[in-house]
């Protein structure tokens, strides 16, 4: 089957009247990569997808696929296939005609495209559904028909616009694995749009976190999670305890920040200098109930305990009433803690990252 | 029935059923049955009605098939009505598609109002307007003579194409709205998906939009055909002796020939053709009566 092609965005901007949906985005997506755009609704990620697929031409900048400038080429002339959010299957055609539609448009004979459609339906484990009506399929089956229909035209780049959002949680998790497997098997470049960080983190080779039409960070999933580049990325992806303050000390790799809750130390994530306003982020699972920890130490009041089985979520309150979350492994010593009036929360400086003050994601 | 009684109470339910029955039986079914009954009896002087000569016969029907003039008019009426329907569809499908898909909602509303306004004027007056345009000394002839394109006025009135034109104009709305209504429900993503899969514009219409619009097209074609075949005002105003419409023949049987029996037979034949047309359209477009009624 076909091998993917690269997608380059060069200073791409998209304006609708006064509104700038995508603002000067430059990006290189490699051939065969599973790349996700992650951001809240209205951040411009769907607009980017529509510019790559050819439904919109950028107001400024260029879109290149496989090194070729795509300006002026409509969606039917690009080596891309789009899977729509609502799938947009053709309800008046049987399943196999849906899958074969792109081949029909390319002038393939009826018997040949029927055969090809059956092969593709086998690939997505819908081998005997060719003659069924779309309306008779379940949500997950329709999903697979949409994938088969897109694969039929042997695209170099597959574009997916939140295609899993209509499915229930269990099916969604199953389809994630399946999408990833199909991408690996076919070698097609996948560009995936989602507001669901779980989808982005589990499936992607790389993620672009977007906010207000701009790229906040482009990195591997673990890097986005562990080394967020901006306060938005840090707060949109995963949970974080956030402490605000001013830089009072600098060392080679670390900064010291004066906060409402005392001095704290963290890795310097963004060229912070003496006196800068800063935000310190530390993940709940990297905070602990302990006296040690060279990053920071807070005497917090326990508000609630959520027992999740293998781990426990603790919701606490700092003296300045700021909520704090700690996730700890279940070591069997739970009863002890419930009787404590105040709990010492601490974290290591290595586990925390300090960034210049900026906008946070609303969640 | 029980639900109706529970909801509105006994007396109101009884009233509703009574009025519906009066309407359907008294105003629709009985007059039609009487007409059918008439059509199978000979036209007799008043004194002989109910007498020994008043027997059931097919002669009113066979008369039409024996009369080449009437038969031609009958066939031409059907054929011209089909032409009207085809022409109206050819105009209305692109228009309806543009209204539903090609423009902003505000713009579409404005255009729809502009389409409806002429229909506030009576059909007869609207047809008269065409007469003014097409008459010997009318707008078109005057303009063409001024420009020196022609030196003798063209005779438009009394020609069958003119009647077809007048009817397309008169009934175009009955084709636009059913098609517009179904196209309006076509998901934009369907069209985009087809484009994304490589479909050229005509193919999107052929494989996606037209199949989706089928019920609306069937309704539009049925309405337009029925109105055209049953039209009286347009052929009377724009037509002449050469372009008689079958409705005019029926009228003259009733009120000029005073032969209600033959008129009823002719009218019944026209109705039969119209019903056949509906059935054919529904078969052709594979739509059910329920879908058409929507």
Automatic annotation (TrEMBL), chain A:
Keyword ATP-binding attached? yes
The reply to whether Nucleotide-binding figures as a keyword in the UniProt entry is yes
Q: Which keywords annotate this record?
A: ATP-binding, Nucleotide-binding, Transport
Query: Gene Ontology cellular component?
Result: ATP-binding cassette (ABC) transporter complex
Q: Name one GO biological process term.
A: quaternary ammonium group transport
InterPro entries for this protein = AAA+_ATPase, ABC_SmlMolc_Importer, ABC_transporter-like_ATP-bd, ABC_transporter-like_CS, Mo/tungstate-bd_C_term_dom, P-loop_NTPase, Transp-assoc_OB_typ2
SMART domains from the entry?
Answer: AAA (SM00382)
Enumerate the Pfam families for this protein.
ABC_tran, TOBE_2
Q: In the record, what terms sit under GO molecular function?
A: ATP binding; ATP hydrolysis activity; transmembrane transporter activity
According to the entry, every stretch annotated as the ABC transporter domain falls at: 7-237
UniProt superkingdom: Bacteria
Q: What is the name of this protein?
A: Spermidine/putrescine transport system ATP-binding protein
Source species: Dongia mobilis
From TrEMBL, chain B:
Q: Does the keyword Lipid biosynthesis apply?
A: no
Q: How does it sit in the membrane?
A: Multi-pass membrane protein
Q: Which of UniProt's keywords are assigned here?
A: Cell membrane, Membrane, Transmembrane, Transmembrane helix, Transport
UniProt xrefs under InterPro entries: MetI-like, MetI-like_sf
Residue ranges of the TM segments: 12-30, 78-99, 106-122, 162-180, 264-285
UniProt entry tagged with the keyword Transmembrane helix = yes
Compartments annotated for it: namely: Cell membrane
Coiled-coil stretches: none
One GO BP on record is:
transmembrane transport
Q: Which SUPFAM superfamilies match?
A: MetI-like
What residue stretches are annotated with the ABC transmembrane type-1 domain? 74-281
Q: Which GO cellular component terms are attached?
A: plasma membrane
The Swiss-Prot or TrEMBL record describes its family as follows:
Belongs to the binding-protein-dependent transport system permease family. CysTW subfamily.
This protein is called what? Spermidine/putrescine transport system permease protein
Species of the source: Dongia mobilis
